[in-house]
Write a structure and sequence with these properties.
Layout: H1 14-22, E1 28-29, H2 35-46, H3 53-72, H4 79-91, E2 95-98, H5 108-119, E3 124-132, E4 136-145, E5 148-159, E6 162-172, E7 175-178, E8 183-190, H6 193-199, E9 202-210, H7 216-226, E10 241-242, H8 251-263, E11 281-284, H9 285-295, H10 300-305, E12 309-310, E13 315-318, E14 333-341, E15 347-354, E16 365-372, E17 378-385, H11 403-410
Parallel strand pairs: 2-3
Antiparallel strand pairs: 1-9, 3-4, 4-5, 5-6, 7-8, 8-9, 10-17, 11-13, 12-13, 14-15, 15-16, 16-17
Helix pairs in contact: 3-4, 8-9
């Protein structure tokens, strides 16, 4: 099995991150290449066979009416719309899955068979369709020979009743792995003369597709309890904590996330326009606690001990994340793979952490206990990292500054 992996590089500043986002790419390899090397690579990539237009026309004809109906009902991004498209493609013999891995892949045995051909270093080809929520789909045309896998990735966008190709990239997979957790993960670098002029680099594409099915209840629990928290700018799922001992759980990060969940908008207490100035706010007790206590069974005294609280005016100090606390915008996601309903009404979720950016379908596993509430909501009871020698590093996370670090950086400014 092909397991070569490129090194992951931090982009040179936020401008590069923004540029990569504008191009709708997942990452770049910033190692400059000599001009003759780039030219040779572009020529080599262009020798990879292009996708069949006849095949593409068939795919479009299969699902165009579903897109049109969803557009009329304003449901283009709804899960059930995506499910209907994936299943329709499967009924017509295609291996298809959604881009958020929330729907069982159709014709998964074809993909497993292709992976076996890669391992055996035989010749084979397959088309896999990844249905997006944007809306549109990505069509992967894969060919293998001698253990190598060539990829033609074409993105098709639906707009105003028409599906048409938006972009196409070709590359040879530098990393290819059908994992024990049932994921197909592959990546490679493609080049274009126009992009090289701007970035002096190639573009690294990372693909993560769940091949093996997953219990629908597990997916529903993931969407309800884990996806709304995620891993962005918080440590809720990377440290051990419980209602008896909240440990290192950062409640300021939780306030940022839960405020948005409760109010449908970002926290209004923003960083200063001057990056050299540290903004400080005081949030009234009831406003801060009402957000946190909706999702945690925690009393005022305990919450105050985990934050900075001013009893003289009953306010919580709040410092928004600044430039030094910015994270690289590539995050893993949690996926419930099993659950147990406990006698006290709580549910223990067994969870794997999947990190597409690093090609790892199990960075580590953890257990999250939640308490469903009668109003349809829920509280978070605990998180426990399951010990293992194979557990990876939480490289995506940047902690909030400590009081000492904040004072050293901003001082009296």
């Amino acid at each position: 099995m092909l397991l070569r992996k490129t090194t992951w590089f931090w982009k040179s500043g936020l401008a590069a991150i923004s540029f990569a986002r504008m191009l709708s790419i997942s990452g770049c390899n910033d190692v400059p290449l000599k001009e003759d090397t780039v030219s040779k690579t572009i020529i080599d990539v262009q020798t990879i066979p292009e996708e069949s237009q006849e095949d593409t026309d068939e795919i479009i004809s299969i699902c165009i009416d579903l897109y049109e109906k969803a557009e009329e009902e304003n449901k283009l991004a709804d899960l059930e719309t995506i499910r209907s498209i994936v299943n329709r493609l499967g009924e017509n013999g295609y291996s298809a899955v959604d881009s958020k891995n929330q729907i069982d892949m159709t014709e998964a045995e074809q993909v497993v068979g292709f992976c076996e051909m890669v391992d055996a270093k035989n010749e084979a080809e397959i088309t896999i369709i990844e249905v997006s929520y944007l809306p549109g789909f990505v069509k992967y045309d894969l060919q293998t020979k001698d253990g190598n896998v060539d990829v033609v990735r074409s993105y098709y966008k639906y707009e105003n009743g028409i599906i048409q190709r938006n972009t196409t990239e070709s590359y040879q997979a530098e990393y290819w792995n059908y994992t024990e957790e049932g994921y197909l993960m592959f990546s490679g670098v493609w080049y274009s003369e126009e992009l090289y002029i701007l970035t002096l680099s190639g573009v690294e594409e990372n693909t993560t597709l769940r091949v093996q099915p997953l219990d629908e209840t597990c997916r529903e629990l993931t969407r309800k309890y884990l996806t709304p928290i995620s891993f962005e700018q918080n440590n809720m799922f990377i440290v051990d904590w419980s209602e008896d001992d909240f440990g290192e759980l950062n409640f300021y990060d939780m306030y940022d996330i839960l405020y948005q969940k409760e109010n449908g908008e970002y926290v209004p207490y923003v960083a200063d326009d001057n990056l050299g100035v540290g903004a400080v706010y005081r949030i009234p007790k009831e406003k801060f606690e009402s957000v946190i206590m909706t999702y945690f069974n925690i009393d005022s005294e305990t919450l105050q001990s985990k934050t900075v609280y001013y009893s003289e005016d009953s306010t919580y100090e709040y410092k928004p994340r600044g430039f030094e606390e910015v994270e690289y915008p590539e995050y893993p996601y949690s996926e419930v793979i099993g659950f147990t309903e406990n006698s006290d009404g709580t549910i223990t979720l067994t969870v794997n952490v999947v990190f597409p950016h690093s090609g790892n379908s199990k960075v580590y596993a953890h257990e999250v206990v939640v308490r469903p509430l009668k109003d349809g909501g829920g509280q978070y009871v605990s998180n426990r990292i399951i010990p293992s020698e194979d557990n990876g590093e939480e490289t995506w996370h940047t902690p909030r500054l400590t009081a000492e670090e904040w004072e050293e950086l901003y001082g009296g400014k």
